[in-house]
Design a protein that fits this description.
Biased composition (Polar residues): 196-205
Number of helices: 11
InterPro entries: C2_dom, C2_domain_sf, C2B_Copine, Copine, Copine_C, VWF_A, vWFA_dom_sf
Distance between the termini: 42 Å
GO molecular function: calcium-dependent phospholipid binding
Strand order of the largest sheet: 16-13-11-19-20-21
CATH architecture of the largest domain: 3-Layer(aba) Sandwich
Shape: elongated
Low-confidence stretches: 195-220, 484-492
Number of strands: 22
Region (Disordered): 189-222
Domain VWFA: 236-450
Strand content: 25-35%
Structural class: alpha+beta
């Protein structure tokens, strides 16, 4: 932190994706910084239906703070706000705001702060906050001058009104002794504030304690996607790749399986889809171990509608998927007909059941996502539809990604599900890869239905989420630092 004429200095940057954090134990991920050190990131569900729940304009001043300096020098106070986060092993405090530093002043008036209520208290005016006043030290080893616990409601109600004694404030404590006070000069809510916020104009001026409003909207008792992930539900990704003759001759440029010369650094359509879609879904898989299957290839004159790609039953990460895919073309395969998904779906359903049974033995849950990459020309759409309905009884979702410009009408038929006329739950999502030229748009399309499909599976069976898993910071795998220059071109 730099003050006054000294500008802030960037200590390092780290790029995280939400899926990566949600897939980590305790919703906590970490990464090294190029300049040294490690940053930890924790994700938490919003407590309100709207992300923009409003802001609080807050200004504080210190009163008669105890000096922690010696030799005739005077402390230079700043304050920090922390919000309370409950974990299985106990509560912890996370810093959400740090004020400016007022030099050599035991009655400092700090600059007004515009606090986002979502970031400060998760939209909950009654959530515990801790306020610590520090004496700024150039070494970075700032010294505590005093602290107190309150809530956003408490700060709003502690605002000093005209005519009230200037001495009134929140008492700061250190070693069980009062070490000064903090006075709330300004505290005003604005924007889309929670209904339990007091007066109609979004501000609270009364010092009287108020009970929570009876009109406060209650959260639905139905669990949500993040509740299951936070409770230890393991997301498993399985991949199936189309090796049928409908892809054309892989030796000819322009066909989906054609491998460009290494010096061109260009990928074929399947490599692009594996990297793009695989990266989206793999973020939620905590162990990064994926089974990869192929279908539609002929070995020893026998058409195989589900076979293992690569030497390992499960491969490591998206790069492992890519290597297993490429390795198939180093085997004596013949691309054949017809295009059939049924055996792949059956295999994935059995895999999903096994993973769920193993998870249940540990008191957890497991859910599998089957990613099918295909050039289309499905010949048994009705049979495949029946197989998907049967598989809807298993903890499974199926994402079908269309490669190339074939007729994907049968795939769109598989994606259609009318709960009023069809049995089972909707578990299928079809995405035509060439329709998406933006990584964000592709991500939204791929993930659009999976959260609801997962929640429906477990709630239909009255399987509730587990408790939030705790984590040991010493055991969290620290990802390597991001490159200084990061470039990404969407490969759609």
């Amino acid at each position: 932190m730099r003050d006054g004429k000294f500008p802030h200095k960037v200590m390092g940057t780290a790029l995280f994706e939400v899926g990566q954090i949600l897939g980590a134990r305790g919703n906590v991920a970490s990464k090294s910084l190029q300049s040294g050190g490690v940053v930890f990131v924790h994700i938490e569900r919003c407590s309100t239906d709207s992300v923009d729940v409003g802001r609080c304009l807050l200004q504080l001043r210190g009163l008669k703070l105890h000096n922690t300096q010696t030799l005739g020098r005077t402390s230079s106070p700043f304050y920090e706000l922390y919000r309370k986060v409950e974990r299985p092993t106990g509560a912890t405090w996370i810093s959400v705001y740090r004020s400016n530093t007022v030099r050599s002043d035991l009655n400092p008036l700090w600059t007004s702060a515009s606090l986002d209520l979502e970031a400060t208290c998760n939209g909950d005016l009654h959530r515990a906050l801790k306020l610590i006043v520090w004496d700024h030290r150039r070494t970075g080893k700032h010294k505590v001058m005093g602290e107190c616990e309150t809530t956003m409601r408490g700060l709003l109600e502690a605002k000093v009104e005209p005519g009230e004694p200037n001495e009134f404030g929140l008492e700061l404590m250190k070693h069980d002794k009062v070490t000064g006070q903090v006075q709330v000069v300004e505290a005003t809510l604005s924007g889309m504030v929670p209904q339990d916020s007091g007066s109609q104009d979004g501000s609270l001026t009364s010092r009287e304690k108020r009970r929570p409003s009876n009109t406060k909207k209650e959260r639905s008792s139905r669990p949500e996607f993040i509740d299951y992930l936070s409770g230890g539900c393991q997301i498993s990704l399985a991949v199936a790749i189309d090796f049928t003759a409908s892809n054309g001759d892989p030796r000819k440029p322009g066909t989906p399986h054609y491998f460009h010369p290494p010096e061109s650094k260009e990928w074929n359509d399947y490599e692009k889809a594996i990297f793009a879609v695989g990266s989206i879904l793999a973020k939620y898989d905590s162990d990064q171990q994926f089974p990869v299957w192929g279908f539609g290839a002929k070995y020893n004159d026998v058409v195989r509608h589900c076979f293992q790609c690569g030497l390992e039953v499960e491969v490591d990460g998206v790069q492992g998927i890519m290597d297993a895919y490429r390795g198939v073309f180093r085997t004596p395969l013949t691309m054949s007909y017809p295009t059939k998904f049924t055996e792949v779906i059956q295999t994935a359903a059995a895999y999903a059941r096994h993973e769920q049974e193993m998870a249940q033995e540990e008191g957890k849950q497991s859910y599998t996502i089957l990613l099918i990459l295909t050039a289309g020309n499905l010949e048994n759409a009705e049979e495949t539809k029946r197989q998907l309905i049967e598989a809807s009884d298993d903890p499974l979702s199926v994402v079908i990604v269309g490669i190339g410009d074939a007729d994907f009408g049968p795939m769109e038929f598989l994606d259609e599900h009318d709960p009023n006329t069809e049995e089972g739950r909707d578990i299928t999502k079809f995405v035509r890869f060439s329709d998406y030229k933006s990584f964000n748009a592709l991500t939204e399309a791929v993930l659009d239905e999976i959260p609801e499909q997962l929640v429906q599976y477990f709630t239909d069976r009255k399987i509730m989420p587990g408790l939030l898993e705790d984590y040991d910071a010493d055991k969290i795998e620290v990802a390597p630092a991001d490159d200084d220059e990061r470039t990404f071109t969407f490969l759609g």
